[in-house]
Design brief:
about 50% helix; 3 strands; about 15% strand; alpha+beta
Length: about 100
């Protein structure tokens, strides 16, 4: 990941959550755990590679937890961690802002 240039807290957050998909992925995990293909269906514009890379980045940052269940076939769930739960308020603000933008246009 890139290094923060300004040291600003907003830049730190954007360094982790910036890009097209990461906050959107987190928004779908707010309601509870999801499997990989559920997330793919929820976000039809995302490629498998992008989803994999962004989930890994969120996992490495400690915001998302990946659980592998020993079943056949293997089941993998993704969910927000306790630290990731802090994103709920960010998602709510972004949702409100998005609704405002939709109404404006």
């Amino acid at each position: 990941m890139k290094v923060s240039v300004s040291g600003c807290s907003v830049e730190e957050a954007m360094r982790l959550l910036g890009g097209r998909w990461r906050l959107l992925i987190a928004s779908y995990l707010v309601d509870g755990p999801k499997r990989f293909n559920e997330l793919r269906r929820d976000i039809p514009g995302i490629s498998q590679r992008s989803l994999t890379l962004d989930l890994r980045a969120l996992e490495e940052s400690g915001l998302v937890k990946r659980t592998v269940w020993p079943t056949a076939p293997v089941r993998v769930d993704y969910e927000l961690t306790l630290d990731g739960e802090r994103l709920k308020s960010v998602v709510a603000v972004m949702k409100d802002f998005g609704m405002w933008l939709k109404q404006k246009s």
